């Protein structure tokens, strides 16, 4: 294990990303456990931080951690040092606390245990997936391939391919396929599949290009009922298991 870590993580310059990734997941799991214990009013678990009766959301602590970890990471010049790893881990914990209350920041009101609060969990899951791809060595739209190309003609060719890949990923996102579009930034074939398939009902693409009652709209609705909703129910169940079930009135 030690040899693998040195070869695949430390020697490839991904130590800070690894520390960020692990700390981000640990920070999210810890804060979700904490808020669930508070929600249950567990006597053995410390309650909310509320000096003088003012409740301080953990997004505030997350911002402080991100500032300290981010500035500390910029100040450290040795990417493989313990200080660099510690700064990256602190930044990861801070980002977990911030994104766990992303819905609160987005809506500018406390929607943590409502249906709107699911947005925070979805953003966290997306962040984990993208960081995992980066940790595996993938780069968005093949940025590393373009940077390593020394031939001008070849570089322009790679740039054209990357622009096409980026365009396909944007089309997939406009069609309401968030995961397909984001993964398509790293894997071109995924972006192509998302771009050529039907858009999801209610997506910007569908609203602009699928006329009400048209054949494409009917096909999109049928596909949504047949494929998307079962997957969404599974994703919701996993989210509830990890992050807790939203309140009925939320």
From TrEMBL:
Keyword presence, DNA damage: no
Protein name in the entry: Integral membrane protein
Transmembrane segments: 15-35, 56-77, 83-107, 119-136, 156-174, 181-199
Organism: Actinomadura nitritigenes
Source organism superkingdom: Bacteria
Keywords on record: Membrane, Transmembrane, Transmembrane helix
